[in-house]
Design brief:
Blueprint (H helix, E strand, L loop, with lengths): L7 H15 L8 E3 L11 E11 L8 E5 L7 E17 L1 H12 L4 H9 L2 E16 L2 E17 L3 E2 L5 E8 L9 E8 L1
Parallel strand pairs: 1-2
Antiparallel strand pairs: 2-4, 3-4, 4-6, 4-7, 5-6, 8-9
Helix pairs in contact: 1-2
Length: about 190
């Protein structure tokens, strides 16, 4: 059964949309998937990939339980979990590196946050980067790689639970903490 939540393709689409918009109106040809086939566009451009789907942030994740009890029928339960992925942006050309730094800064804008949240993704500002100059024959090409953390949630399909037929409760009353003989009241309620 597939999980509900953004997959790698949805995270990639959200990251490309963020970079195109926050980078100053870049085009699809300037912000390409990292694994795209075919010739590369003219420099400058960005190549974006999504990697390393992993539980939680910092390697820690606690599954959460979501109960749907107000549907009027039997209770339903789904398990949710925070996930994180690495969004890698390769900036080819010095101008492209500037686009990424500007996009990183704009991650705090309400419009950018809203668009990413609508896609079910949060991209954490403050990417690590590693600039490099690559020799390509007689040409030298500037490249910088930026790694951003993307956070999102996944959930299982809701599962219908069997409603309890009865609930048992015991109440213990003491006059004082050291009272050796508490009054116990047991109650069973049929639902």
């Amino acid at each position: 059964m597939p999980l509900i939540g953004p997959d790698d393709a949805a995270i990639l689409q959200a990251a490309r949309a963020w970079l195109k918009g926050a980078g100053g109106g870049l085009t699809d040809e300037q912000v390409i998937p990292l694994d795209a086939d075919g010739p590369r566009p003219a420099i400058p451009y960005l190549a974006v990939g999504v990697f390393a789907d992993r539980p939680g942030t910092g390697g820690v994740s606690i599954p959460g339980v979501v109960d749907d009890l107000d549907g009027g029928g039997d209770p339903r339960r789904a398990i949710t979990m925070r996930r994180a992925a690495t969004v890698t942006v390769q900036a080819i050309g010095r101008e492209a590196a500037r686009w990424v730094r500007e996009s990183d800064l704009r991650l705090g804008l309400d419009s950018v946050v809203g668009a990413l949240e609508a896609a079910g993704v949060v991209i954490v500002p403050g990417a690590s980067s590693s600039p490099n100059v690559v020799n390509r024959g007689v040409d030298r090409e500037f490249r910088a790689v930026f790694d951003f953390e993307a956070r999102y949630r996944v959930a299982t399909e809701p599962e219908t639970l069997t409603a309890a037929a009865e609930v048992a409760s015991t109440l213990e009353l003491r006059q004082r903490d050291e009272d050796p003989d508490p009054l116990l009241v047991a109650t069973t309620i049929d639902l």
